[in-house]
Amino acid sequence: MSGPTIHSIDLEKLQRRLDRERRARVEAEKIAETGLRELYENQTKLQLLEEVAASANQATTIRESMQFAVDRICAFTGWPVGHVSLTERNGTESRILPTSIWHCDSERFKEFREATESMPFSEGTGLPGRVLSSGSVAWINDVTQDGNFPRWRSARQVGLRAAFGFPVLTGSEVVGVLEFFSELASEPDDALLRLMSQVGTQLGRVVERVRAEEKLLHDAFHDSLTALPNRALFMDRLQRAVSRAKRHREYVFALLFIDIDRFKIVNDSLGHQAGDTLIIEVARRLLDCLRRDEVTIQASKVNGRPRPAGDDTLARLGGDEFTILLDDIRAPSDGVRVAERIQQALAAPFRLNEQEVFVTASIGITDSSISYNSAGDALRDADTAMYRAKAQGKARCEVFDHGMHEMAVNRLKLESDLRRALEREEFRVYYQPVISLKDGRIAGFEALVRWQRPDVGLVLPGEFISVAEETGMILFIGNWVLRKACQQVHQWHIERPQARLLTISVNISARQFMQDDLVAQVRKVLLETKIEPSALKLEITETVTMGDAARTIKIVTELKKLGVRLSIDDFGTGYSSLSYLRRFPMDTLKIDRSFIHNLDVNSENREIVKTIMALARNLGMDVVAEGTETLGEINHLKELECEFGQGFFFSTPVDSNAALTLLREREPQPEVLIG
Amino acid sequence: MKGIVFNLLEEVVTIHHGADTWDSLLESAGVQGAYTCLGSYSDDEMAKLVGAASQMLEIPAADVLCWFGRESMAVLADKYPKFFQAHKSTRPFLLTLNDIIHPEVRKLYPGAEVPVFDFDSSSDAFLLMGYRSPRKLCALAHGFIEGAAGYYREKVSFEQMSCMLKGHDKCLFKIVFSAREAAQCQDLQSTVSI
Q: How confident is residue A295, by pLDDT bands cut at 50, 70 and 90?
């Protein structure tokens, strides 16, 4: 009956049911789609970040990783234009400079590219300037409608609209800005900007790493105190100059080796801090001297540090040693001109610790007119010339010549031969008798070292003692002579028990005297050689005692406690005051040969010797006259009641066998020889 | 073929001819008929549906595809307005097709096969647009272009210079735009409503 009605109700019901089902399906699809889309988008974002991070880890240059990022971001966003600019810092001011790192079709966006590359952006200006000043991302919906986009005209010309930029950050410092441009205007995409922020951080890591590497590299080749090139870098540059000079005749270089005179004194007296300050200040003045011509070339400044003009290199080799390579100069004489300029520049006083300090330098110069084969040779010659300048009285320049080289080579050979001489037992002790003027008998000997040098013969100390002093070998030689002489004299004591006790005088050099364990060394020799201590006379020059008086007194006193005796050698040459002498408990005074010479005819010398004799007597000291050569001198000394004489008149220094012969000859008839 | 295309077809057929027409189309094509936009279905099913429509209407399959393309543009504009609103005319909209379709499709279906369009926009008078797809549905693309022009209220004159169906390596359209709305492919509305 009511069938059709029921059917139509059912149909409507079913229709609604179907509608609900359909709506549910569409909604489910929508939800799934959104989820899938988000998933995909997150994945691609992650992938982008991962790729940028991986590239950041692998990239060796900032450029490489920036280029990768800019390409990758353009691929990610589908935006056609991307560009990298970098921050330039000048003191407190920063600005953004364009680079040639782009992602874009260079033909299509030519005008925009040119506009970008032609302008720096100050803080706050344009898109990069905004990123620079805020340190965070920036978005422009449409650059052609933006009030702060100086490139709007060219952007409109090539059809660019929306833009965003983000900073490359190391810490809070914006080191660069990446900017991207779309052909469509659009609203800010916050998710994208967040992602870009992270990319910026990753890129910052590359900058940080590259900077750290650059710093390491810089540190490896630069002196940390002055930031000047160090020896390694200098030698590299010098080697290049040497090689170039070999290839090109017209190429000339000069090499200056500069050493600050008496730098150690500044260091020791004002402290290392002041020494460091002085080195920095000297470095600065030296740099100023590198300007080539009288026409002042503005020294270009990099990172606030002055740099020499041209390709000249100023380096600090260490300590107070500087070197300068004058590259590609007109004539070798340019080296001398610069050296003179340096002397002038150093002439003005330096202020250190509120004190004015005056500094001079010794400068050695060489140049490519000597055909060098290696940088090492050139540096050696400049060093040699510098030593020559120093030896000639400091505050001077010396140009290297071959004579210097020969001298230097000889010296070097002497040094190495000297080192071997100890091992090869080439040293000899010679003995010069000290005669008692009263009876003409031998009171003792002075031990003197000789070097039996192979191929040369017997070498006197004058030829090698200064080198031995400089190299410190004097310590070994001195100790050896002491031991040898003591052994020998003890031997004679045993062989001639009835005779008077012979004394043996041994020279103690300044350097030996400075040793902390000198007393211990002497004690050891006394014990080992079993010599009677009072037979040993240690001779110290007057100048040695003039150093640290308190220390001298202490050591002299300790030596006296061992029972040995002490002489003042070369007395009269050291200008020590007579009252000063009183403070040291010395036994013997040896009058320098210069006062003995011509004693019989030179009344002035006679007066001096007389005064010294009186002084010695007052202080209870014996006197030995050195360098006695004539009978006249001897007679005068006897008149003055001088106890002992030593010199050619009696005997030159002789070897131990001859000395023994002398002993035997002199013992029975002393008066024959003395007359 | 992606489910969304089947959904689109269902939608335009239903809009213009009612749900019953869709049902009978499914039946005469002998296809399963349940499509979700998240799924992928055999290309063959689309071919059968187009074939069935072609038979029912006694018009070439290409015309069916063209009509489908044109009409579905309005539906798409409704669903994804932001892609359309970013442009003021057909030409720049077409130029961004690769950039829109490819990423969007791939977001949902990784590894999907997508048609590739190429453009020669050197002339202001016309646009040369190439189409390459293993499915060779250039008629559908033609319809889409006309539908887009309809959205922007522009008139397009359309010349197909080469066709993959004729053995060319791609289909090439020469398109001229002018500012008046007009439908170019056959109006099927009356014919289908049997």
A: very low
- Contact assessment for residue A73 and residue A82, using Cβ atoms and an 8 Å cutoff: yes
From chain B, pick out residues whose CB is under 8 angstroms from the CB of A78.
99, 103
A293 — phi, psi (to 5°)? Answer: -110, 175
Which pLDDT score, from 0 to 100, does residue B180 have? 62
Among the listed residues B3, B7, B130, B142, the one whose alpha carbon sits nearest the alpha carbon of residue B61:
B142
- Parallel, antiparallel, or unpaired: how do β-strands A93-103 and B127-132 relate? unpaired
Considering only CB atoms, A33 lies closest to which of B38, B86, B106, namely: B38
For the whole model, what pTM was predicted? 0.51
Handedness of CA A62, A67, A70, A72 (dihedral sign): negative
* DSSP 8-state assignment for residue A297: P
CB-nearest to A29 from B38, B86, B107 is B38
Tell me which residue of A151, A238, A146 sits closest to A185, measured CA to CA: A146
Residues A595-605, mean pLDDT to the nearest whole number? 86
Residues 6 or more apart whose Cβ sits within 8 Å of residue A151: A112, A115, A116, A119, A126, A143
Which residues on chain A are in Cβ contact (under 8 Å) with B37? 29, 33
Reported ipTM: the value is 0.74
Q: What is the pLDDT of residue A574?
A: 62
Q: Name, in order, each residue with C-beta under 8 angstroms of A408's C-beta and a sequence gap of 6 or more.
A: A380, A384, A387
CB A351: neighbour CB atoms within 10 A?
Answer: 11
- H/E element holding B97? helix B97-108
Q: Could you give the 3-state DSSP secondary structure of residue A616?
A: helix
CA–CA gap between residue A654 and residue A583 (Å, rounded): 35
Measured CA to CA in angstroms, residue A513 lies from A482, A521, A541, A553, A590 at distances of: 13, 11, 10, 12, 18
Q: Nearest CA to CA, how far is B107 from chain A (Å)?
A: 5
Interval B147-157: pLDDT, tens: 999 999 998 88
Tell me what pLDDT residue B140 has. 92
Instruction: Please state, in angstroms and rounded to a whole number, the distance separating the CA atoms of residues A133 and B67.
Output: 56
User: Distance (Å, rounded) from C-alpha A191 to C-alpha A673?
Assistant: 117
Per the CB < 8 A criterion, the answer to whether A288 and A344 are in contact is no
CB contact under 8 A, B36 and A25: yes
Q: Which of B36, B37, B108 minimises the CB distance to A37? A: B108
**Is the pLDDT score of A405 beyond 70?**
yes
- How many angstroms separate the CA atoms of A208 and A58, rounded? 13
Suggest the residue from A40, A182, A192 to mutate for an interface test with chain B (most B CBs closer than 10 A). A40
- CA distance to partner chain A, nearest, from residue B112 (Å): 14
| Residue-level pLDDT at A612 | 87
In the structure encoding, which two tokens stand for residue A435, read together? Answer: 């005669």
pLDDT level of residue A197 (50, 70, 90 thresholds): very high
Orientation angle between helical segments A656-666 and A474-495, nearest 10 degrees: 40
